[in-house]
């Protein structure tokens, strides 16, 4: 599951960069992709923190 999440993060990052190059950094599409990437990164970080706490307690 972690590898799948990392692949999604990388794909979204590439999409955002490409949109920034083609449309500009302030373009609504680029900004939307940036927010989506932020959300994915936050979810990934939360899952990592949960895993670390679980490993610490065991």
Describe this structure in words.
The chain is an all-alpha fold and 58 residues long. It has one domain (12-57). It is 90% helix and 0% strand. It contains two helices and no strands. It starts with a helix and ends with a helix.
Query: Which term fits the overall shape?
Result: elongated
Q: If you compute it from the alpha carbons, what radius of gyration comes out, rounded to the nearest whole angstrom?
A: 14 Å
Question: How many extended strands?
Answer: 0
H/E element sequence: HH
The number of helical runs is 2
Outline the biggest β-sheet: none
Query: Low-confidence parts, pLDDT < 50 over ≥5 residues?
Result: none
Strand content: under 5%
- Overall mean pLDDT score? 90
**What's the domain count?**
1
Measured distance between first and last alpha carbons: 21 Å
Helix content: over 70%
Q: Which oligomeric form is depicted?
A: single chain
Would you tell me the structural class of the helices and strands?
mainly alpha
């Amino acid at each position: 599951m972690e590898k799948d999440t990392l692949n999604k993060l990388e794909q979204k990052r590439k999409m955002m960069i490409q949109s920034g190059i083609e449309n500009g950094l302030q373009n609504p599409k680029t900004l939307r992709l940036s927010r989506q990437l932020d959300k994915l990164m936050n979810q990934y970080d939360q899952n990592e923190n949960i895993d670390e706490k679980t490993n610490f307690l065991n």
